[in-house]
Amino acid sequence: MADSTDQAQVLELEDIQGTLLRQRPSPYTGTYFLLRVDDPAHGRQMLGRLLPHVASAARWWDPPSRAWLSVALSHSGLQALGVPQASLDSFPEAFREGMAARAERLGDTGESSPEHWDAPLGSRDVHIAVSVFAPDTTGLESLLEVGRSALRDLPGVQMIYRLEASQLPTKRTHLGFVDGIGEPDVEGAGVASILQAGRDHYGYLPGFGPTIKAGEFVLGYQNQLGRLTLMPQPDVLGRNGTYVAYRKLHLKVADFRCYLKDNSSSPEEEELLAAKMVGRWRSGAPLVLAPDHDDPDLAADPTRANDFTYRDQDPAGLCCPVGAHIRRTNPRDSLTDTIVDVRIHRALRRGTTYGPMLPEGQLEDDGAERGIVFIFMGADLVRQFEFLKTQWANDGDFVSLGTEKDPVIGNNDGTGTFTIPRRPVRRRLKQLPRFAITKGGEYLFMPGIRALTWITQLDT
User: Fold this and answer.
1) For residues 456 and 47, is the Cβ–Cβ distance under 8 A?
2) What's one GO MF term for it (predicted)?
């Protein structure tokens, strides 16, 4: 429970939706659904049918139906379900406004602005988001049937959007990189204490940095500032919940490949440039530990792949540029001598791919929709997700890079630059285009399981 001491907090894992604290299986196949509620009673009844199948953090390795189901709600969705006005007003402003209303500050402009988003993303019609994942199609179909049954005879709930999001055969992103490395170590349930995906396999994984207070990610617990993050009322609604930033990003894979080729003199140099932009080789091996050549064995070793720092091992960015993607999104110890406390700006992240792979070596876009769904989770949307986007991804001042933006996910417009420190003379790439186009997004609230039960019983 939360208190003002340094005593470790015990998380109520059986009440926390599992996807908040646990990684999904690999390989995976899955689907995202968005629902609109036209009848509050039908919406609550549908939630009640889904509730027994929501995987908790306590049952993550033995979930109902051998598949993983999670539920999150928008502010308009909470209203559509009949949540009292006093409770609706107790949510923070950013959540009440929604992602589309805050698009400009997030860098969602030009091609990424809400008028270009896939309908109905960004609209007030998105009420409930349901994610369903399983290790294989058999498990997925079993849980999809649960979803179909939950909607049966409830015309007051309509499915308005569906997105298939399955792992690629390469188990990497469309840009060719291993993903999901370097998650924060959450007090009481962090990834650094789980060596393998099983309850009987524990061990310390070095390199995750200091353990971060659970209250940074789960409402109802002490955060890094030594207090409880404000949560919606009543307590049963807010406790063990979290906020979710759902982002659908279209990746310009052909443009990325062309940019590497146009700024390199050989395939080997292309790979090095890609690694410099991201901060890791495509295998996941970090540049700080493997600065000159990829090291797949290092990448495959969970006790070494994340065990590095910037301040002592690479202060000038000669191995991993200070503007590289992973160094921006998690500066680690590189800001120790500044007023910025990295620990209060971290967010838990889950990424899933969608769309077909662009054939290897193809440099022309084939017009297919492909990309990644980013899920950011944390107790404070502004201090975590929005800070990461506005300050770390789309501004270079915090690392003395002026107007330079994240070379992979930043809102570059073809005039951007990317600096690669090296001796005797640094290299500065120019005309950096935007490789990730926002196709939609939502701010959601992922309640605890008791909170979901409370919502289903509002009519009683």
Assistant:
1) yes
2) peroxidase activity
Contact of 452 with 262, CB cutoff 8 Å? no
Distance CA(45)–CA(175), nearest Å, equals 42
Q: Which contiguous run of DSSP H or E holds residue 145?
A: helix 137-151
Residue 2 carries which side chain, given as an amino acid letter? A
Burial of 89: CB neighbours in 10 Å, binned 0-12, 13-18, 19+: exposed
C-alpha distances out from residue 204 to 156, 180, 207, 211, 348, Å: 49, 18, 10, 12, 19
Is the bond preceding 267 in cis, omega lying within 30 degrees of 0? no
Q: How far apart are CA 74 and CA 363, in angstroms?
A: 39
Strand partners, 126: none
Are the C-beta atoms of residues 281 and 294 closer than 8 Å to each other? yes
| Contacts of residue 362, Cβ cutoff 8 Å, sequence gap at least 6 | 254, 257
CA-based nearest residue to 244, from 15, 20, 5: 20
For residue 75 the two structure tokens come to: 């502010």
CA separation for the pair 63, 197 (Å, rounded): 13
pLDDT at residue 205 tops 90: no
- The single-letter code of the amino acid at 112 is S
- Separation CA 154–CA 416 (nearest Å): 51
Q: In sequence order, which ranges of 210-323 are alpha helices (DSSP H)? A: 235-238, 253-262, 267-278, 296-300
DSSP summary character for residue 15: G
Q: Contact, 261 vs 380, CB < 8 A? A: no
Amino acid letter for position 414? G
Closest CA to 35 of 207, 197, 157: 157
C-alpha–C-alpha distance, residues 146 and 21, integer Å: 24
Report yes or no on whether pTM surpasses 0.90: yes
For the stretch 216-265, pLDDT in tens is: 999 999 999 999 999 999 999 999 999 999 999 999 999 999 999 999 99
AA identity, residue 100: A
